[in-house]
Design goal:
Protein name: TetR/AcrR family transcriptional regulator
Keywords: DNA-binding, Transcription, Transcription regulation
Largest sheet: none
Strand content: under 5%
Organism: Microbacterium aurugineum
Shape: elongated
Order of helices and strands: HHHHHHHHH
Radius of gyration: 19 Å
Pfam families: TetR_N
Helix content: over 70%
Structural class: mainly alpha
Length: about 190
């Protein structure tokens, strides 16, 4: 019995660390979010953080997973229009959390190394994102000119590239540009009279 209680407390503490790290990185930025500061917010030592996550890279990978939980898109629930609008809402939200955008961009470059702790996360996330996008466009009444998988790759590439441009120049209108691109590549079907 004690073991179950300890396990539950450990899971709860891990969640608390992730939520706190998500908040700190979102507010202060990736560059300014030290393990020490995240640990202080939670009330643990930096060594305790590493006890729960193994390394800074693993902690940051799990922070991105937690962010994805908060931003999740499910086309089976939202429908085609809902998935499109949900994806654009995530992009709008990203403009409010530049630290998380910087973390995502930096970790994605590092994760190109198959040995990096975030490598599998980025592969799985990309596949899931493209699947969500492709599924939403595959159900449109008016089919886009491109097949849904190609369209999903183009939208993902444009979104990731716009994030980099926006990090350099915050005047870049990520949501506006992505809305225009999606509306051009896959216009919404005309409403039925």
């Amino acid at each position: 019995m004690v073991r179950r209680g300890s396990y539950a407390k450990g899971v709860a503490r891990r969640e608390e660390i992730l939520e706190s790290a998500l908040d700190v990185i979102g507010r202060k930025g990736y560059q300014n979010a030290s393990l020490k500061e995240i640990a202080e917010v939670v009330g643990v030592t930096p060594a305790a953080l590493l006890h729960y996550f193994g390394s800074k890279e693993e902690l940051f990978t799990e922070v991105l997973r937690k962010r994805d939980e908060h931003d999740g898109l499910d086309p089976s629930v939202a429908g085609a229009a809902g998935a499109r609008d949900g994806f654009l809402e995530v992009i709008r939200h990203n403009t409010q959390v530049p630290g998380l955008v910087a973390l995502f961009s930096r970790l994605s470059v590092d994760a190109a190394d198959p040995e990096h702790p975030a490598h599998a996360y980025f592969l799985e996330r990309s596949e899931r994102l493209r699947g969500t996008i492709a599924e939403s466009f595959a159900t449109e009444e008016q089919r886009p000119a491109l097949d849904p998988e190609t369209l999903a790759r183009i939208i993902q590439a444009a979104s990731d590239g716009l994030q980099l441009q926006w990090m350099i120049d915050p005047s870049v209108d990520m949501p506006g540009i992505m809305t225009s691109l999606i509306d051009t590549l896959a216009p919404r079907p005309a409403p039925h009279p």
